């Protein structure tokens, strides 16, 4: 029984924006369910195959903003075939047909076609924001339709997509009347850019706050762009192979000086070190710095720059900065919340001194009290260091450690890193995401199951000894949503122990483990509400027709996820849904 | 990437390598210690995104001057111990051959087998034996 009229309740619900909270509200009563669903504007779908567009639209007719995710996370590392799935087209078709007033679409790891983009651009008159992350399947022609037809476009944000570049006339397609842009990111485009069109577009977009250009935008063009957009808050720089001449450099610095609102910098692929120096005038204002593509800038230049970035909250950098560089970060960046250190050298040469070690990590943990998220690629680690880190930083929400050499033990004691990671999960009571690496036995999973009460996502590679390891995690981590495992000795016993556990999880990925076809078939039989997908890129793909003996054959890649709409119909030949 | 191994050919006295019926070969061996060949070709480790992977692969040769070298191990047929040298210190095949000839105290050529000389070969990623000198130095 409601004591307020529906409109009042709806108004109250307006203040509640978190997806989790709104989902909870809808469970209170039938009446609240109805009010909530009719007023819901933003929907997040973590797995596009868990539901279908028709049911989505039926439940949320007032939908304005939709976020969809397609391929599993390990697709980022070439573990999922390109043709696996995650097509956005049926969603756009359904939304268009139902005349949903869509304004915002955010896609991650989905396949997007030019046709989809064209349909999108023509179907939603109020469309404002398109964000594509790690997507593929489209070309700059698709971008051209979005530019041309979305009259109210404010945001076009393309992050790390595979886009076929048909040579830059798409920027010309923004009509002269288009002046509402607040965010434009095309840094992942590989081809040439029509500089004149870009400059005109930026000049007529007074609200532009975020601009990230691609490699092809040279220094003098960047200078001109910044001169007509001093209001920029977030800038992604292109590539500048040669050191600029004195005059160009001075002009660039002058333009940069005027950008007093600039807080975030990124880009810098193939950049001569001097170009970084041009940003000295504003570096003390920076809160976010992404130099993870700046493979040409040596450690000492990086260090010299970061020394002045006292307000940095987010830093993404390559390990060429070294432990010494991280010590500088630790003493300079007291506001640091998120750090990512990526590998700069994939060839594992013995003489490589510049990679980071446990020393850098400990320094950061000691110097940066606000640190809550870390992604750290390093060549070695010790339990002692991890225990110290845990003591220094009990506030970690995300802790991802990747020791480059699989199965590498503590290099001072030759023991496994179970105790180190155990200390992390025990101290960091709010930990939601964890990636483990190095030499690890079942024990580390015992600790994770015991202590990681808030853990939602766990990534395991080359770890564990027996099924017990995986079982500790499945039994212990009540909030687990995404579990992804590769090259670890977990098999059918762990997979099948508690089938109902998968009702509470979004998905499970297992590749190069010990699960067999027979085990997967059994799981699929016992859990019809799961899609159990076997990915096999070998020649004989027809797994269903194999005889009994092949039940013992190990499955190369398994991906299972809960769904309310049954087996998908768009799976390619290399995917078998049991 | 593994480029290594010696030919199985007729055995030759290592101190006095005068070739007999078949010619004797020097072979290059280049190994990356802990990255297995399979993993290297599969490109799924370390777990980094494609854009970063491409960026790192595309690092210009200029970078080589500052940090790393390209060490290879050269074995002479019949000699159990190979010699390690840094390929990046050579400007071309000629200086490489000159240096190797000096190192092994024998005359070495690229190209067709010749009874009088050692021939320099290497094994590529497909496992095929190739003559050194066929492709440009870079």
Automatic annotation (TrEMBL), chain A:
Q: Which GO terms describe its cellular component?
A: nucleus; SCF ubiquitin ligase complex
The entry's keywords: Auxin signaling pathway, Developmental protein, Nucleus, Ubl conjugation pathway
Task: Please name the GO terms of the biological process aspect recorded for this protein, alphabetically.
Answer: auxin-activated signaling pathway; pollen maturation; SCF-dependent proteasomal ubiquitin-dependent protein catabolic process
The record's Gene3D superfamilies line, in alphabetical order, gives: 1.20.1280.50, Ribonuclease Inhibitor
Main subcellular localization, coarse class?
A: nucleus
**Which InterPro entries does the protein's record reference?**
COI1_F-box, F-box_dom, Leu-rich_rpt, LRR_dom_sf, Transp_inhibit
Any Pfam family matching the protein: F-box_5
Q: Which SMART domains match?
A: FBOX (SM00256)
Q: Give the coiled coil ranges.
A: none
Localization, per the record, is: Nucleus
Which Gene Ontology molecular function entries are recorded, alphabetically? auxin binding
Instruction: Give the protein's recorded name.
Output: F-box domain-containing protein
**Which species does this protein come from?**
Brassica carinata (Ethiopian mustard)
TrEMBL record, chain B:
Q: Output the superkingdom of the source species.
A: Eukaryota
Boundaries of each PB1 domain copy? 69-138
- Record flagged with keyword Transcription regulation: yes
SUPFAM superfamilies assigned to the protein according to its UniProt record, in alphabetical order: CAD & PB1 domains (SSF54277)
What UniProt keywords are attached to this protein's entry?
Answer: Auxin signaling pathway, Nucleus, Repressor, Transcription, Transcription regulation
Q: Name one GO cellular component term.
A: nucleus
Function (record text):
Aux/IAA proteins are short-lived transcriptional factors that function as repressors of early auxin response genes at low auxin concentrations.
**How the protein assembles, per its UniProt entry?**
Homodimers and heterodimers.
Name used for this protein in its record: Auxin-responsive protein
What species was this sequence derived from?
Brassica carinata (Ethiopian mustard)
């Amino acid at each position: 029984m409601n004591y307020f009229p529906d409109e009042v309740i709806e108004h109250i619900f307006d203040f509640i924006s978190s997806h989790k909270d709104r989902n909870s509200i809808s469970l209170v009563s039938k009446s609240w369910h109805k009010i909530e669903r009719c007023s819901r504007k933003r929907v997040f779908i973590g797995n596009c195959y868990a539901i279908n567009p028709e049911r989505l639209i039926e439940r949320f007719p007032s939908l304005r903003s939709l976020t969809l995710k397609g391929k599993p996370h390990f697709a980022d590392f070439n573990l999922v075939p390109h043709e696996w799935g995650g097509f956005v087209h049926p969603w756009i078709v359904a939304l268009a047909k139902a005349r949903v007033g869509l304004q915002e679409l955010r896609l991650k790891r989905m396949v997007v076609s030019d046709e989809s983009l064209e349909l999108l651009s023509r179907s939603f008159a109020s469309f404002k924001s398109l964000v594509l992350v790690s997507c593929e399947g489209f070309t700059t022609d698709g971008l051209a339709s979005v530019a041309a037809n979305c009259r109210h476009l404010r945001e076009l944000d393309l992050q790390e997509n595979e886009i076929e570049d048909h040579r830059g006339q798409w920027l010309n397609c923004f009509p002269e009347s288009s002046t509402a842009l607040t965010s434009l990111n095309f840094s992942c485009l590989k081809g040439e850019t029509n500089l004149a069109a870009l400059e005109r577009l930026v000049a007529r977009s007074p609200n532009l706050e975020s601009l990230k250009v691609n490699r092809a935008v040279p220094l003098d063009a960047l200078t001109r762009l910044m001169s007509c957009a001093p209001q920029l808050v977030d800038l992604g720089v292109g590539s500048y192979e040669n050191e600029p001449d004195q005059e160009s450099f001075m002009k660039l610095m002058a333009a940069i000086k005027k950008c007093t609102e600039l807080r975030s910098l990124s880009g810098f692929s193939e950049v001569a070190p001097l170009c970084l120096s041009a940003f000295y005038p504003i570096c003390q204002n920076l809160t976010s710095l992404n130099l993870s593509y700046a493979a040409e800038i040596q450690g000492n230049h990086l260090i010299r720059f970061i020394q002045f970035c006292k307000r940095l909250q987010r830093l993404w950098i390559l390990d060429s900065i070294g432990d010494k560089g991280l010590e500088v970060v630790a003493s300079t960046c007291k506001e640091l919340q998120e750090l990512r250190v990526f590998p700069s050298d994939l060839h594992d040469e013995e003489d490589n001194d510049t990679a980071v070690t446990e020393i850098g990590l400990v320094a950061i943990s000691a110097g940066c009290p606000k640190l809550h998220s870390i992604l750290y690629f390093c060549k070695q680690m010790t339990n002692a260091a991890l225990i110290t880190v845990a003591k220094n930083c009990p506030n970690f929400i995300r802790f991802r450690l990747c020791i480059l050499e699989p199965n590498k033990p503590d290099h001072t004691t030759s023991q496994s890193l179970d105790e180190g990671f155990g200390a992390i999960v025990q101290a960091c009571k709010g930990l939601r995401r964890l990636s483990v690496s190095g030499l690890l036995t079942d024990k580390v999973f015992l600790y994770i199951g015991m202590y990681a009460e808030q853990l939602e996502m766990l990534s395991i590679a080359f770890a564990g000894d027996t099924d017990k390891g995986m079982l500790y995690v499945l039994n212990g981590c009540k909030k687990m949503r995404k579990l992804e495992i590769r090259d670890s000795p977990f098999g059918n016993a762990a997979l099948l122990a508690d089938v109902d556990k998968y009702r509470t999880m979004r998905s499970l990925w297992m590749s190069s483990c010990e699960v067999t076809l027979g085990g997967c078939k059994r799981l699929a039989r016992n859990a019809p509400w799961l899609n159990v997908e076997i990915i096999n890129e070998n020649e004989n793909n027809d797994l269903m027709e194999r005889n009994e003996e092949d039940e013992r054959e190990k499955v190369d890649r398994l991906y299972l996820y809960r769904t309310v709409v049954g087996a998908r119909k768009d799976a390619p030949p290399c995917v078998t849904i049991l | 990437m593994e480029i290594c191994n010696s030919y199985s050919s007729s055995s030759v006295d290592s101190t006095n390598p005068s070739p007999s019926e078949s010619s004797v070969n020097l072979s290059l061996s280049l190994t990356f210690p802990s990255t297995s060949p399979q993993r290297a070709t599969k490109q799924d480790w370390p777990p980094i995104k494609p854009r970063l992977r491409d960026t790192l692969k595309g690092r210009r040769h200029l970078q080589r001057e500052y940090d790393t070298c390209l060490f290879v191990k050269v074995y002479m047929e019949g000699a159990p111990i190979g010699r390690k040298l840094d390929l990046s210190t050579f400007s071309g095949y000629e200086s490489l051959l000159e240096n190797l000839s000096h190192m092994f105290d024998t005359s070495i050529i690229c190209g067709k087998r010749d009874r009088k000389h050692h021939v320099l070969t290497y094994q590529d990623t497909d496992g095929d034996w190739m003559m050194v000198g066929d492709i440009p130095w870079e």
